[in-house]
């Protein structure tokens, strides 16, 4: 706990989080999913924080998704017992998975090939096998098998014949991050749902119960209108939100709960630059808005009270230097920011920016007072 500190007192660059905005973002999604009658399985990869996760289910451990076994172990230590490890499993990780399951954690793994299924079928945690979800590809974004691929029931049969549990299917609509506008976001959500349900029906027709039909991404979770046949929704970015989500219409910049605080260290007025001590080591190299209608550079720039400077972007970054300049074509004046001025950078990608820091400095609502430090889970 920190007392009598403000955003002006800490060494820059650092990450600041507004917990009131986090709580509002969580409340928004929970209400939406409650209306659709489907529970949330939060993806903790964005925040990797027990303190943030505590806000998800009123302080009690709830179902979560993780992207690393270090996350699974840290959350298991804190009492979480219902965990999906949503990165394709490999044999060298079976031992850690087995240790967690022997501790009473219902840890479910993910796979999308017969090769993985055959390896998993030989792994045991006592008298039972490790349960698995089969990853389904709904939009060609990354991993998974198509719901109509004949290999899908073969994967399931390989698991079942080896004594492993076919828990169901998991779909992630990764291309929804490029779906600009409400109509396209709703279409992405429906396509995600349809593919997941179709895959589950294929498995059931082949004799597998497949009780879990898991879908989710932050865009589709917010724009799903019908979740018939779905048993859970996964999302993670929504706790913080970012400029990519704002750019496609999932949120506004006022909903961004996380900013990077940096200090002005110099000027190159001949180039129209303001230099800061926060480069890509503080904000990441993510340029997720570069493909959107409005390119936000490496992030928007605000004062410590959160007021955006007109048309001012973090336009470039080296390892420890940030460059602030006006948006191309802007008629605004470059703001007068003397050396020592602190500014906030609103990030493109909350997950990538959070990964650059090991703690969050938590502020009071509508204040620069820092009231707590929340540690972030480290490791893989």
UniProtKB/TrEMBL annotation:
Keywords: Lyase. Residues 257-364 form the D-serine dehydratase-like domain. It comes from the Bacteria. SMART domains: D-ser_dehydrat. One of its GO terms (molecular function) is D-serine ammonia-lyase activity. Belongs to the DSD1 family. InterPro entries: Ala_racemase_N, D-amino_acid_metab_enzyme, D-ser_dehydrat-like_dom, D-ser_dehydrat-like_sf, PLP-binding_barrel. This is D-serine deaminase-like pyridoxal phosphate-dependent protein. GO terms for biological process: D-serine catabolic process.
């Amino acid at each position: 706990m920190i007392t009598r500190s403000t955003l002006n007192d800490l060494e820059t660059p650092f990450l600041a989080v507004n917990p009131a905005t986090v709580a509002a973002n969580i409340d928004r999604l929970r209400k939406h999913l409650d209306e659709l009658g489907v529970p949330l399985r939060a993806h903790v990869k964005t925040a990797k924080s027990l303190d943030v996760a505590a806000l998800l289910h009123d302080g009690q451990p709830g179902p979560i998704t993780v992207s690393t076994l270090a996350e699974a172990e840290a959350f298991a230590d804190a009492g979480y017992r219902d965990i999906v490890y949503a990165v394709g499993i490999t044999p060298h990780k079976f031992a850690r998975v087995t240790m967690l399951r022997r501790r009473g954690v219902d840890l479910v793994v993910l796979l999308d090939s017969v090769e993985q299924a055959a390896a998993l079928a030989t792994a045991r945690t006592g008298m039972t096998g490790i349960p698995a979800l089969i990853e389904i590809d709904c939009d060609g974004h990354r991993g998974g098998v198509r719901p109509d691929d004949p290999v899908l029931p073969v994967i399931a049969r390989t698991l079942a014949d080896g004594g492993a549990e076919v828990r169901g299917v998991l779909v992630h609509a990764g291309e929804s991050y490029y779906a600009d506008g409400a109509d396209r976001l709703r279409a992405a959500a429906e396509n995600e749902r349809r593919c997941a349900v179709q895959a589950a029906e294929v498995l059931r027709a082949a004799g597998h119960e497949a009780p879990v039909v898991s879908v989710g991404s932050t865009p589709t979770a917010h724009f799903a209108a019908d979740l018939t046949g779905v048993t859970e929704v996964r999302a993670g970015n929504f706790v913080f939100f970012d400029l990519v989500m704002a750019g496609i219409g999932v949120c506004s910049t006022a909903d961004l709960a996380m900013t990077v605080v940096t200090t002005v260290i110099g000027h190159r007025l001949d180039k129209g630059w303001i230099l800061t001590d926060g480069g890509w080591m503080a904000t990441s190299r993510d340029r997720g808005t570069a493909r959107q209608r409005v390119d936000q550079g490496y992030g928007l720039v605000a004062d410590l009270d959160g007021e955006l400077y007109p048309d001012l972007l973090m336009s470039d970054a080296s390892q420890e230097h940030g460059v602030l300049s006006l948006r191309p074509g802007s008629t605004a004046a470059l703001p007068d920011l003397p050396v020592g001025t602190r500014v906030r950078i609103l990030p493109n990608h909350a997950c990538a920016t959070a990964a650059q820091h090991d703690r969050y400095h938590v502020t009071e609502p509508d204040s620069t007072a820092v009231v707590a430090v929340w540690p972030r889970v480290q490791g893989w």
